[in-house]
Amino acid sequence: xxxxxxxxSSHPSAPEASFPDRRALxxxxxxxxxxxxxxxxxxxxxxxxxxxxxxARIIIVDDSSVRTEVYSDFPDLxxxxxxxxxxxxxxxxxxxxxxxxxPLILFIDDDNIVNGEAVMHLIDIMEKYPRIGAVMPSVSYxxxxxxxxxxxxxxxxxxxxxxxAGRNSIEHVLPDQDLxxxxxxxNAFMIRRSVLLAISGFDEEFIYNNSCDLCQRIxxxxxxxxxxxxxxxxxxxxxxxxxGYWADHVAADVERAFPESRDWTLLMRKIHGKKSxxxxxxxxxxxxxxxxxxxxxxxxxxxxxxxxxINISFLKGFILGIRMKVSTFYRxxxxxxxxxxxxx
Length: 344
Description:
The chain is of the alpha/beta class. The chain is built from eleven helices and twelve strands.
């Protein structure tokens, strides 16, 4: 990995610090009504001898309306949990990781395809740098592997949104560094189980959008978080060029509109502190986000009934997010003085 020694404050672990059991990995997948995509992800995992050699179990938490039948040549590796009532992502992830016993857990959204080299590279990073608490792979579109979905997701300067590094660009050569800073862990990431124990897992104050919150709490506990440009997963989502592709998820799953809006509002309040509810930037950025999604839904010709329902849910989620009592605010590093302070 180029330049890693200069960029990381962690020191490579000694040989005796390596994971004692070769089967050091559990994979956690949360899924909802996407049987075919789930099966394709499982096929890619279990089709790799490299992954299987390290794998203790695959934990699937499924809150689909109907129980999903999954097929595998390694049924003993599958730990399937069906929840007939929908619990959404955060609760499902907590259920999943608490059933794992391995030092490393790889969380993967069900609309991905993985390969052995990418997973092994993440394991190598975690073994080499003990101060890294979590690392995400870079992601390409499955249908266009050279087109980047995202390399990493650091905050933009004002911290009201994320900088989606590499988003929709064509990759002609790999970036000259492997590990990049990130402030969220979307789509897939590997984490130490000990870190999840230390921070009490995913915060269920968030129902759906927990990736950025988790990343901030990992950093707050003293660990580092990075994205790897070398490790590459493939995301099975519509690529650019398909009308309204960025609104595909919410259009396909109307129930996610309310928790997405609520969680975004709660996250912004936790990032920007106690006075954020009085900031015009909170309201302006919410409106910008909704307009972008609305444009996507119009382009894919979503029915007017669904369009109205989603927008009402967005508004209700935002209002609840404003009214919620915030339990804690994130603390951020002051780059000039190297101290930790609460964001105001």
